[in-house]
Write a structure and sequence with these properties.
348 residues, 12 helices
């Protein structure tokens, strides 16, 4: 049987169904090994992010192929794989422009784990085009990071080019903020500061021993006001990456941008939220404001990056990641919300 976590109209419950089988020549059945809990999943359960009325959640998962359709050639039964939850129609205006993440049919409108049954289950049926075999050097445990890393790489693409001597601020030390910090360090950036309100999360970030300063945002506000008083035009950051999704935090940090700086909005703010910024500052400082949506064209690069980074950066204990069983989902969600861990992963 197939045990899964299904959300129905915002409520999560354990269900048991027959295992999915191949129904199309392009289908692949994956026996799930590890499946991550994403901040988006928490937004779904809080009814703050759209998804199907009834669906098995989970869009970050790895596993082993147990069955394939007759047209599937690039993977085989028994092969270890990871799934890219996002697809596109390859026919619309945006797809032709090389912007599949805006596709009105695919992208976030058909994501596995939001609109189609995902990986919070023992088995999952997915289109072959979204299945990627993983190298032997990547464990199934580490492969859970491939999807979030692919999204983080999109954020880096939006910030590029960014010289390695840039002063960078990463706001929020949940798992996405930590992955941004790990990738920054791996890429040679050393002038990085992380801000976090929660003391538990600052402790997790400090334990990674990347050599970056981890501070409460109010300490930066004090430095900002001191810079204004002293007319210090050099104080601030060349790039700020928001991973909090907090409109108040975003509005505050806009003041900390240097001339010629870029602000990357990565965290998912509530849809109805608003902030106030000074348009004179945008012009006078020549500021850039960029968004970052899912993972167009970054998934294969993320596989290679996870392979290269896994040994030194992606240890579960070091990152504050904790494993849970599916049936203990309530404990997993509560522990994640408490801030005592950076990420929950279901070991299936």
């Amino acid at each position: 049987m197939n045990t899964a976590l299904q959300v129905f109209d915002g409520e999560l419950s354990v269900i048991t169904t027959p295992p999915p089988r191949v129904s199309l020549p392009t289908d692949v059945i994956v026996k799930v090994a590890y499946s991550g809990v994403c901040g988006t999943d928490l937004h779904v359960l809080a009814r703050e992010f759209p998804c199907a009325k009834s669906v098995v959640l989970g869009h970050e998962f790895s596993g082993v192929v147990t069955e394939i359709g007759s047209d599937v050639k690039h993977c085989s039964v028994g092969e270890r794989v990871v799934v890219n939850p996002n697809s596109s129609c390859e026919k619309c205006h945006y797809c032709f422009k090389g912007q599949p993440h805006f596709c009105p049919v695919g992208a976030i409108n058909s994501t596995i784990g939001l609109w189609r049954n995902g990986g919070w289950a023992h088995f999952c049926r997915v289109p072959a085009s979204q299945v990627h075999p993983i190298p032997t050097q990547i464990t199934l445990e580490a492969a859970v990071f491939i999807e979030p890393v692919s999204c983080v790489l999109r954020g880096w693409d939006q910030l590029s080019p960014l010289p390695t001597d840039a002063d960078i601020l990463i706001m929020g030390t949940g798992i996405i903020g930590l992955l941004f910090a790990c990738i920054a360090h791996f890429k040679g950036y050393r002038r990085v500061i992380l801000t976090e309100v929660a003391e538990q999360r600052r402790t997790i970030a400090s334990g990674m021993k990347l050599g970056f300063n981890i501070v409460h945002p109010e300490s930066l506000e004090i430095l900002y006001k001191r810079g204004i008083k002293n007319k210090d035009v050099n104080w601030g950051f060349d790039a700020i990456i928001d991973c909090t999704g907090s409109p108040e935090a975003v509005q505050q940090a806009f003041n900390w941008l240097r001339h010629g700086a870029t602000f990357c909005l990565f965290g998912c703010c509530p849809k109805v939220s608003e902030i106030k910024i000074n348009p004179f500052d945008v012009t006078f400082k020549e500021l850039k404001i960029v968004g970052s949506l899912i993972n167009p064209f970054t998934f294969p690069r993320a596989i290679q990056l996870v392979q290269d980074m896994a040994a030194d950066y992606l240890n579960y204990k070091k990152l504050g990641v904790e494993l849970f069983q599916l049936e203990n989902y309530a404990q997993a969600l509560a522990t994640l919300k408490s801030g005592n861990i950076s990420k929950a992963v279901f070991e299936i």
